[in-house]
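notes to self, project folder thing:

trying the whole complex as one job this time. last attempt i did each chain seperately and stitching them together was a nightmare. two parts in total, labels are on each line so i dont mix them up again. if this works i'll redo the older ones the same way
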Amino acid sequence: MTIPQMNPVLSVRDLATSFFSQRGEVQAVRGVSFDVFPGEVLGIVGESGSGKSITAMSILRLLKASGRIKSGSVHFDGQDLTALDEADLRDIRGNRIGMIFQDPMTSLNPTLTVGEQVIETILRHRKATRAEARARAVELFELVRIPSAAERLKSYPHEFSGGMRQRVMIAIALACDPKLLIADEPTTALDVTIQRQILGLLKDLQSRLGMAIILITHDLGVIAEVTDRIVVMYGGLVMETGPVRDLFARPMHPYTRGLLASVPDLRDETHRRLTPIPGSPPDMAHPPTGCPFTPRCPHAMRQCQAALPPIFGTGHGARCWLHHPDAPSSFTSSSGGEVSAQRRVRGPSS
Amino acid sequence: MTTNPTASAMRHFPLDGGGREGVGAQAPGQPLVSIHDLHKHFITGRALFGPRPILRAVDGVTLDINRGETLGLVGESGCGKSTLARTLIRLYRPTSGSIHFDGTDIATASERDLVPFRRRVQMIFQDPYASLNGRMTVRDLIAEPLEIARIGTPQSRTAKVHDLLARVGLHADHANRFAHEFSGGQRQRIGIARAIALEPDLVICDEPISALDVSVQAQVVNMLEDLQDQLGLTYLFITHDLSMVRHISDRIGVMYLGRIVELASNTDLYRRPSHPYTQALLASIPVPDPTAARPAAPVVGEIPSPLHIPSGCRFRTRCPIATDLCAASEPELRDIGGGHLAACHYAGAAPPQPAA
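result (full assembly):
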């Protein structure tokens, strides 16, 4: 999907979320901005501690008691979700924004049949009779391809396999025709053949129902498979963003390049040594000044430690001083990357 | 593969505790481990009437592990790969079958007779947060195997710990810290230092990188490869990561419902997957390339319960080419050419038309 001209479904601006404990403040998200457009799949990729899941939890305001949104806004359907009260939020969660998580077992109530849980969701948000809600539940189970749908409504979560439970979660998430679905590592706990089934299902549902999806994952393969646009997060910040093909073909940020280089290439039969990123991710209780990737970056300059770079580039951009208009061009030319001189490079995008 | 062909000749790892007590004679031509028709069944739950159900976690595995190689073992959750590893190191007593380690059958050996064996086989676990005692310093964690084996003096053990820390890329001054002060990748390095402290022959790596971040996984894999070259280690590498297993393994076994369904050299398996299950697995790998072609879900359904293993071929309930023959008779793991083993009636032959 190239730079869409329509209005975004969701607009996140300068979102900052921290967790507070006796040991101090952990700055999980430190000023994140992105848009999600109708009908697109936006992938948020990052490693543990990058802030990707906390970003999602902040959008839905599902933070633990110790977490607090410090600043920024989340506009959805003309409303700022950060300013809504709990009652209005409940009307949005599970209704206009659906959500699925990594572990369906902890998200489902083990003491209720799955049918009851789907029906409950429908009745909470829609004016419908029980019979209508039940009919809709059967329809939803068929939509997510649970065999013998009507029969399976009577089952309890433990009677389902992991893959089937995730289908139940998707059915619940779609119960009220959401405009946006947030899926946080939806296939991470599943086996690879089941993952393929669920990803195929999500893609198919997305094109049939036309909703937008935010897919959060650490898996570059999953990201490449199903998303249209990507946000790469590291140290609580967006490091790079762009259309999926462009970003994989011409990664601009040294972190993105490092990530792509550290996974083995299945088509490579020479078994050359892997290229890891040295060091480990930053401790967000003491985030480094400047660019958080500096200590691990092969291109680090004095400037990187001194000041956090803005995102350079439009459409496809990266938070890296190497892409400053005045930066030497060795990085981009030597490694085959392309930040074309013709492209207008400007300050912080969005 | 980066395995150095002279790896076994380079086995010079100064051990201050004297010689190794071998279990059986060193026979270089023979596999280090030879597993034959191994079964591990668990009796589970309760049945009101009739016999209690039997969970056949490992259900007839025959497998050799050669000296100095990395044997990858892949399969989905519930396929029995971890149970196989735990039975192999005798955390579980096998239900039947034999496990020859360096010529000696350890399947039925007593705990006492297992003592020398236990020094020679070590394990690296998946979760570096759960597998290290939080109340012990790194020095004590790494020295513990040496203490249990009564090797060296406290001073020589400390020197050894420093040597091990250097081998796994940590500093000597890390020795006095506790595990919680380290990142996941560093903790896994501590776990690896512990595992190699006794200079084992075989290291079983059970999902050693699954809990680590992508950028750190490659660090640990490179280090495992270096240690193999330096110490002549043999690895059994258990994982569900089909990209990484290809990178690290010399040979790969694919498990399904308690059995090996295909076993081949790394290149052969990925070039010529011959069991429909392997084909499905490989086709399901998410490739980090948005332009790659993606087959639709290659298999339907999910792995059946090991409490109710299907008759005949255990994959037939999900197999796109299953026939009546598959329900009637269980295919043997057979050589379909060049040492490539597959347990499918139709492997190596033209596949039958899909059953209606």
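what i see at first glance: Chain A touches chain B at residues 47-48, 161, 163-164, 191-197, 199-200, 218-225, 244-245, 248, 258-260, 262-266, 269, 271, 273-278, 280-281, 296 (CB under 8 Å).
need to look closer tmrw
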